[in-house]
Every structure is written in structure tokens, then in C-alpha cells.
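User: I'm preparing a small set of examples for a lab meeting where we compare how different chains pack in three dimensions. I only have the primary sequence for this one, and I'd like the structure in C-alpha cell form so I can line it up with the others. Please keep the answer compact; I'll paste it straight into my notes.
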Amino acid sequence: MALRGPKVWLWRWRRNPLKRRADRVEAWVVLGVWTLTVLVGVLAGTTVSRSVEDGLARERVEWRPLVARLAEKAPGRASGNGSVSRTEHVWAQARWTAADGSSHSGQVRALAGSAAGTPVTVWTDRDGRQVNRPVTETQARVRAVLIGGVAGFLTAAVPLAGGRAVRRRLERRRIDQWDAEWSRFGPLWGRTAG
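Assistant: Understood. Below is the C-alpha cell output for the 194-residue chain.
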């Protein structure tokens, strides 16, 4: 385990007669990598977040609810007291007419035991195709922040990994230089003046 002294801020930038060229290069690499990491991460995160939020806002504007009718009796049956339980939803076939007059059909969630012809709400896109209910503004904002955060983090990892590779190479080069100098001056230390 290496013993370290107190942490000194900006130690890479302090004057030191023992500082080598490789140390100065490494200091600039660290500064450049961290600057690039922050900029790339923030830029990617905000861009993706805005894109997701805009896409979800477009869905809220374009997707419309329509009334569909069950084409057949929904599977299952009403609860024992004669009423249908609100928690028992099943998939059932339904038909609806889009805004352009075209006829569509698909599977929808309906209360168990609902009779054929029962109205159910179905969400459709501009072409009348069935879609999920669009998310609310709050849900869209949360989703955009989460996706943007992940995108920013993953994008920021690229320059960080590149910087680590450069620093590893600089370290290898510095150790090779030390080995060369040690092999040149090491034997001189063993001699005695006499």
C-alpha cells in the first residue's frame, strides 16, 4: 500500500524542477479529457432529453381517443355480487372507425364479462392505427430526464475511456524512460570513490 501525503489541489500545474515533459502532457490530457467529458455529456443529455420530450408532446397532440365497440363478449365473468370488478380487465376484440372513415379492429382491454357492443376507449394515431395512451406532461418530463441522463452518461464515458487509454500509454512510456535512465545511472551508484 502506497503512503500518500495530504491532498494538494492543482498539483499537476505547480512548478517543480523534477517535472518531466510527460507530466506536463498528462496534466493537459487530464484537463482536456474532463472538459470534453463534461461538455459532451451535457450536450448529448440535453439533446436527447429535448428530442424525447418533443416526440412525446407530438404524440399527445396527434393521438386521439375513439370509441370502439366490442366485437364479441369479453372473456371472464362478472364478480359474484353481479357487478364487474374494476381490477379484472381482459383482452377482447373490438372494432372502430377512424377519423378518415376507415374501419379498424384490434385487441383492447375491457372489463371481464362485458357484452358485445360495449363501448371502450381506444387511442389511435393519425392513420387510425391503435396506439397506447399518450403519457402526461409530467410523465414525459420524467421520461425525458431519465433517458437524457443515461444518454449523457454513456456519451461522456467515451472521452473518459479514451483519456484513460492515453494516460495509461503515457504511464507506460514514463516507466520505460525510468528503466532506461536507471540502467544507465544505476551501476554508477554501486561504485565507491577510493
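A couple of notes for your slides: The longest strand covers residues 89-97. The first helix runs from residue 21 to 62.

User: Perfect, thanks.
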